[in-house]
Amino acid sequence: MPGVARAHKLSANESPLGPSPKALAALDEARPSLSVYPEGSARLLRQAIGEFFGLDPARIIASGGGSDALLHLLANAYLRPGDEVIFGCHAFLAYKIATLANGARPVIVPEKHTNSGIKLDVDAMLAALTPKTRMVFLANPNNPTGTCLNREEMARLHAGLPDHVLLVIDAAYAEYVGAKDYEAGLEMAARFPNVVMTRTFSKLYGLAGLRIGWMYASEAVCDVINRIRGPFNTSLMQQLVGIAALKDREHFWAAVKHNDQWLPWITGEIRNAGLKVDDSTANFVLIHFPAEGEKTAPAADAFLCQNGVILRAVADYGLPCALRMTVGTEEQNRLAVSLLRRFMALSR
Ligand SMILES: Cc1ncc(COP(=O)(O)O)c(C=O)c1O
To answer: What is the best residue among 11, 13, 61, 68 to mutate for testing ligand 1's pocket, by most ligand atoms within 8 Å of CB?
Structure first.
């Protein structure tokens, strides 16, 4: 950033704690084998995930392109021109891209404005079903709104879908959710042949740069995806680091604790500065700004950038009056909050 000595990136929901030291040590383990093709099914990583979550490893597919690559593989496998794909109007952008890339039609449904934030509307999603619907994408928690559907709402959504409609539950932020009535999609994907759950090591595990994702689905869906994925779609490095990261529970809980401490602090402080902030269940908050005048989201974005803090403008997500802020280190959180306070106090 021109003119800024140090930039703080709070725009991509990365972990302020970074990866586990044990995951970093596993990188070295892979070193001597870099000239050799990796085992193609990521067997050891799938076994470790299966053991940890109590899942059948044969129904897990690992990805060396993050969970993003899995969302695209699912769309490539199941969508044909003319098919319809339902998702919320503030959904993760990959859903629209993967839909359009396959000549299918995005059916974008309104979301509900509640006291705690903007939420996916199960009834609106079910009302959008037509004979052409082939897939429903949703992130739970959703990015960029940070809100969640509970177990009952997810069950109601699924119960309303015909068997041939694939429900893709993107649980990229599942690790952050503490609510008792939250189900990341493991139980649903285990039970229903038309449910897929995707997960990632990019967020709480602090490994966004290494691009490790995985999914859980029925044998039939896994068979299809295994046929079209690359034969060596996860490197040995990704497999070993993923296993080490999963096993380091100390680092996991440190990251949970950090988020549990700073998410409410950020939310409260930014509200105190006079801005509306939705209740988030993930590692980021959605901050709403006035639509007109001097305190708009683009003006705040420019002010923060001039002062070395990068948030995420979310106009592309249908939220031109909002910015998304990732929970950062203590220093970053305090800096971003104090800049927002200064921005709100400024007058020309
Ligand atoms: C909702 C959601 N799904 C998926 C992803 C992609 O994650 P990955 O790094 O595993 O590709 C992201 C990343 O920002 C996300 O916010």
So the answer is: 68
